[in-house]
Amino acid sequence: MIRALLFAVFLFIQLQVKMAGKLVIIVTGANKGIGFEVVRKLAKEANNSFLAKELGTQGATIYLTARDEARGQAAYNKLANLSNDSTDIQYATLDVSSPDSVRKFKDLISSKHEQVHALINNAGVSPAVAGDGGSWDSKTIEWVLSVNYYGVREMTNAFLPMMHDQGRIVNLSSGLAKLSALRDRRLKERFQKASKVSQVDELMQEFKDGVRDGTYGSKGWPRLSYTVSKVGLVGLTRAFAAEQSITHPKLLVNYVEPGWVTTDMGGGWASDGDAKDGAVSPSFAAVGDLKGKSGIGISKDSKETSW
Ligand SMILES: NC(=O)c1ccc[n+]([C@@H]2O[C@H](COP(=O)([O-])OP(=O)(O)OC[C@H]3O[C@@H](n4cnc5c(N)ncnc54)[C@H](OP(=O)(O)O)[C@@H]3O)[C@@H](O)[C@H]2O)c1
């Protein structure tokens, strides 16, 4: 009798493990820099992470994605040897600024997996190396926003229906994107109070309109496209978190400030280490113990940080 009971318990546990399956993790813009190092780090650590234990998963499938197939495949080849019995790295092409590419990628993932456990929106562009500057015109601003803001919005909207209830969405912001970057009190307040994605969309549209007709300065926007794109991204993160808190209270949507690190974007003078150091906080936000917090900022030291 006791033997039969123990056997039944054993079978039940096996079934649970099988049902929980592998963690499915997506990293955008991962052919180089921080995203590449996040894939490397998670390939080594995701399987034994807090999230894996919380969800009872066994192993991980990590999608290294890139907008350019040749660059993506080359990056994948460098990490392919990290795949083993429990963890595998897959490559897929994904341009986050192209709705068509996002849709194709979503179709690919949904044909292979029922759920996604962590989406790391890392892909980003800056019009000038190491911060702001560069061209200031509508075309440039559209491009920066199409990746740093709208790309994250498209990816999040595409994958929200597939996210595990206790999954994670991690957005790569910047220490430059503090609210203090906006001098205008009313703009600050509107960003701070925005609890719907549509409200943040409205703000970003006003910024674009202001650049187009030259009124951005008088309306309180700084002449800093990268910074504004990332302020928008923080607003977007908080708004998604607020919206999801009603229907999916355990889905954690957060942003990270990875530090100023030496990558093609960060430049050679960065003072917070290299891309491996930059990968620490996004990886923590994706699979570490966040104490159930959503809608927060996480610093390069993986501590909660204010906006
Ligand atoms: N480095 C820093 O000090 C720092 C500081 C704060 C925040 N961040 C943020 O961290 C993230 C990663 O930055 P990084 O320093 O690693 O920069 P990076 O080395 O320049 O890498 C950026 C990545 O994004 C990709 N990308 C650009 N446009 C894309 C698109 N439309 N679709 C898909 N991928 C696209 C790039 O692909 P290609 O190679 O094809 O261009 C590249 O893989 C960015 O969001 C950045 O804003 C970086």
TrEMBL record:
Q: Which family does it belong to?
A: Belongs to the short-chain dehydrogenases/reductases (SDR) family.
Tell me the first and last residues of the signal peptide. Answer: 1-20
UniProt xrefs under PROSITE patterns: ADH_SHORT
- Give the matching Pfam families: adh_short
- Per its record, how is this protein called by name? Carbonyl reductase
Checking Gene3D superfamilies in the record gives: NAD(P)-binding Rossmann-like Domain
Which source organism does the UniProt entry give?
Answer: Crucibulum laeve
Q: Which InterPro entries match?
A: NAD(P)-bd_dom_sf (IPR036291), Sc_DH/Rdtase_CS (IPR020904), SDR_fam (IPR002347)
| Entry GO MF terms | oxidoreductase activity
Assigned keywords, A-Z: NADP, Oxidoreductase, Signal
